[in-house]
Amino acid sequence: MNHALKNIDHPFVDIGHAGVTVRLGTKWLDLFGDGVRTVELWECSLAHEGACRSEGNSEHRCTYHGVGKLLGVWFGALRNLPVELLSIEHEPKSRTRVGLRQSLWRAYGADAGHDQVMATAIIYTRMS
Ligand SMILES: [Zn+2]
What we know:
This protein is of the alpha+beta class.
């Protein structure tokens, strides 16, 4: 099974660079926490379950960006996210705590960005 890391409507870090994606809850920890080494990088026009697809209407068309090598997965309260990980968040606007909270509010709703929420940070290097 191929593991896919999906970004909604914005691209990944440049090839050869390391990046971090912060997601709320344990879903991504469960997907990537154990033994996964590479992930497909997909940019999706909207959130969806199941496999990405590059064909189809514009409502559900995903763009394949290449392969990422998984470096690690961090899990903990959002306020404890290490600054070293925050500083390589793949979205430049989210490289400060305030910016990351705003981004999580946008993605998950108003309750999402609090310091106490449990978050998963997926750390990868983009290989292609
Ligand atoms: Zn997709």
